[in-house]
Amino acid sequence: MADTDWHNANIIAELKVKTGKSLRQLSEENDLSANTLGQALQRPYPNAERIIAAAIGVDPQAIWPSRYNSEGKSSRRKGKRSITKKHPIDIAIEYSGGKK
User: Fold this and answer.
1) pTM score, two decimals?
2) Which of 54, 55, 74, 84 is 20 to 30 A off residue 12, Cα-Cα?
């Protein structure tokens, strides 16, 4: 397995050679918005990566080794959006010692 991710142009070219389709066509074929699969070229997007890799005929970690760990699992970490936000009143209650 290579140590570096494929260049975006290589991914697009390989897709065109293997399937005769563009990322837009592949997106629409998979009932996705026209630009969805193109997002995987810019940032980690495991579902899109799997669709692109399957169309090319390789594993996603072969195309984007930096995005996967040694076990072949996505190394994408959840950001701050995954943190449950508390209502300001609940924060105030906790701050005051739990008294309403």
Assistant:
1) 0.71
2) 74
